[in-house]
Amino acid sequence: MDWNYFILALGIAAAGYFIGEGLKNFKRPDVLDSLDDDDYELINERDVHYFMGISKEDAKSLIQEHPDIPHILINGKVYYPKAQLREWLMNLGMEQQK
Q1: Which residue ranges does UniProt annotate as crossing the membrane (predicted)?
Q2: Cβ of 80: how many Cβ atoms within 10 Å?
């Protein structure tokens, strides 16, 4: 029975800690906005089709047809900068409409 109270007290203490940490930035929305900044996020080659919203086969075909797609080679692996890829796709869509 004593262990149950100990575990309950530990849980309440942990909840208090996490709530307190969350309230530190409550009045500072500028800090939270910087967390959403994904300009420097990289997308792995195997996951790029999720970002584009197309099938894996279509993504491979698109990448082969357009070698100018922005990418970075790190340690033999291909990564796509999220912001640059988004801009490139928007420009590609604009070119297709012309």
Answers
A1: 6-23
A2: 22
What mean pLDDT is predicted for residues 81-94? 86
Asked if the model's pLDDT at residue 87 lies above 80, the reply is: yes
40-42-43 Cα angle (round to 5) = 150
Which amino acid makes up residue 52? M
**What is the spatial distance between Cα 33 and Cα 27, in angstroms, rounded to a whole number?**
12
| Cα four-point dihedral sign 50, 52, 53, 58 | negative
CB 82 within 8 A of CB 52: no
Residue 96 — very low, low, confident or very high, per pLDDT cuts 50/70/90? low
